[in-house]
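hey can u check if this looks right to u? its 307 residues, i copy pasted from the old doc so theres a chance i mangled smth
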Amino acid sequence: MSNTASNRLPSALSARPKPLAVVELLKPITWFAPMWAFGCGVVSSGAASLDRWHVIVAGVVLAGPLVCGMSQAINDWYDRHVDAINEPDRPIPSGRIPGRWGLYIAMIWSALSLVVAALLGPAVAAATVVGLVLAWAYSAPPFRLKRNGWWGNGAVAICYEGLAWFTGAAIMAAAIPDWRIILLAALYSFGAHGIMTLNDFKAIVGDRRMGIRSLPVQLGPTWAARVACAVMAAPQIVVIALLLDWGRPIHAGIVGLFLIVQFVLMARFLTDPRGLAPWYNGTGTTLYVFGMLVSAFAVAPLVGAAE
């Protein structure tokens, strides 16, 4: 081996990612969705929270920085070739996360998530295991669910909304949550599939080149946008009907008002899906998640009375 090669090898082995690059890899902006859903789970449980603030903080960290952050790291690692086309400045393709550190960070974060989840109880641990399995299956071979928008978006929606909501309620109840909570979490998870589709419009070119069959690639931007809107609206209609049946007409009315405004915003979004997807993500999706919180407040007294 030449002197030049031997000098380069220790340098490569000793390379470490800088903290700011690691934070960027974990994408803090993406933590909001599961942390919000976790908060909805806490609210929906109807349990007093002041004396369990430390457990709630641990759950927020688990849902956001740990599980969601891990999913971002593993996705960036296995998506590094696509990112080299769509987002070459990302930490891995730019070289700011050197070597195989993207993979190592995902593995370390997975282990930390399991440790924290185990401390929070068996129901939380079980939900976390499911979330981690789905996150790895989404990005990693041989499954790589993200290659198909139907499966991949479903996996992410379950992790970001349903499992996070379930975890928040399970932490407060110290048991499996009430069936009404699970039903609401499942419905909003279904709708979140549409939110995930909105995120796919920005990567159509790179996805086509790399053979990733997102819904905008499979259906075209116009039909993908229509499907996303329908998938987001349908579960909200069911939630409104359930809240009316459960004797919560005011909450049902608020969710219904949010949905009507979403319909107006959807009409504009459908005129230019590719260009307006980020705009709708910031407007229509915001109303969607506010409806989640309203639904959580609606079911809380019912769950508390049942207990």
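The chain has one domain: 17-306.
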